Give the backbone structure.
Amino acid sequence: MERVSMEIGKFFHSNYVMGTENMEILKVVIADDEVRICQLIQALIDWDSLGMKVVGIAHNGEDACEMVQQTQPDILITDIRMPGCSGLELVKRVKELDSALEVIIISGYAHFEYAQQAISYGVGHYLLKPVNKGELTATLQKLQKKIGERKESELNHQELVNKAKRDDDHLRANLIDRLLDQPDMPVSQDTLTSIYHLKARQGVYQAFCVKVDYGRKIISGGRMDGTTGMAGEREISSTSSEVLMEKVREALERNLKNDSRELILLIRDDYCYGILNYPESEKESIRRSMKSSLTQMEIQKNMFQHVSFSMAVGAAYKEAERLADSMQEARKLIQERLVKGDGRVLDCMGKASEIQESELLKKYLREITHAVEISSIQNAAEAVEDLQDTVNKAKEIRGSEIFELVYAAADIFAASIRIPERTATVEEFRKQCDKCGKIEEIFSCLGDFQQKYIQEQAERYENDTIRPVRKAKEYIQNHFSDPLTLEEVSEMVGLSTAYFSALFKKTEGEGFAKYLINVRMEQAKLLLRESNLPVTEICRKVGYNDPKHFTHTFEKAAGVKPSTYRKLYG
């Protein structure tokens, strides 16, 4: 992976460091109908070092639910199936009581589908039995960090609401945070002035966003061939990213903020979101200021390789209630950078394409289904190429259409190959696509996605194919003197006779019977060369009861009779 790394740590300083010594003790409840499992979990973990304490242990769902209500824990560790009230029902009930409660599911393979359903209730963590100390510790550490950040965020939000004058910038950024997470959140001019302390001047409200893309390494012009490797996202250190985003913020504040305008900014991941309130007469001035901001951001390309910047602007509305609409418009417009390129202020949607998406996806479904059936990375790559070729040839197409096409294709692929946790996996894929700033990059991302899972499927298939054949060959080597049959060996490896016969021939290049004969003949040759046993005895030792049949088979395999072979090589 190519790294974008700079010696810039000295320019960045975190004003807040949170250690476990400053955290309140997190309460944990353990629920499992197996007493030994509860004891194991309690004994495995150094709870004190994690800043946690086990406040209760329950052996059925009803007791666990009551215990959660009484102790109000931060974390519940529960088996997926228990008497009285199943773990699944328990998760549903406790989440209704406290949606912030973090739940770790402990499940066996047989209960995997239940774990998936629990995830739909908001459970983000599950572990498979037997419980592994390292995995459980790592999961608890993640939850410790998540809970700490959430409680800190809740505390900050309440403090900021109560003491808004102390930190207006932070409070106002929270407005954008909520608009992004709750697009239907009602906003009024009174809300903006009383809660978020905006001056809310007469004029217009407008939302915008800046997207920073770091690019992807593309192989063969963006086409995956399944043999030359994979494309990949370029890496940038978290410190470098933070410094770069601060440069974006500075450019926006320098150009957009003045006495006649209200400006709110929020940095989230690779985005900087903004809200403007300004006199309607300044529309053209605002647009020029946005272009100037983008020009100043472009200077950062001298320091950060492959980085690019794009800005999208929602419509300007006189009504504060339309601010959420403007934000959603900006978020959709930023996808236009795929077709219009970076370094631009995007403020109008392109023309919709004439591509028949349903027909295109039907064709992709046929192609990708075949690729999955034969575990062909090459065929899967060609299916992506067909999609990309269609997009490239389109006279008009919107960036949002390309994103939706790729999202739909990924969902079709995930269903075809039966990816576990399909919804979560596709959602993670969407996040990776969001990092793509060019058409070839987003299709490369889809190619990577397909290659990863087809490769895993091929490896599983190879293991499932080789293992029974290897086991059969070992059995033949140890029992060639017995009257072996295809049926006996098939049963030993746990496969039907017909399937095993075809699998053996495909893997070894020869049928079971021929392979068995060759093993026996090689053993017979060895005994003829290195022992004085009579031919009739050798005949029995290699699995033949009829000396005439043995002699005929040996002569056919070696070209001479057993007695002649001994004279020549014995």
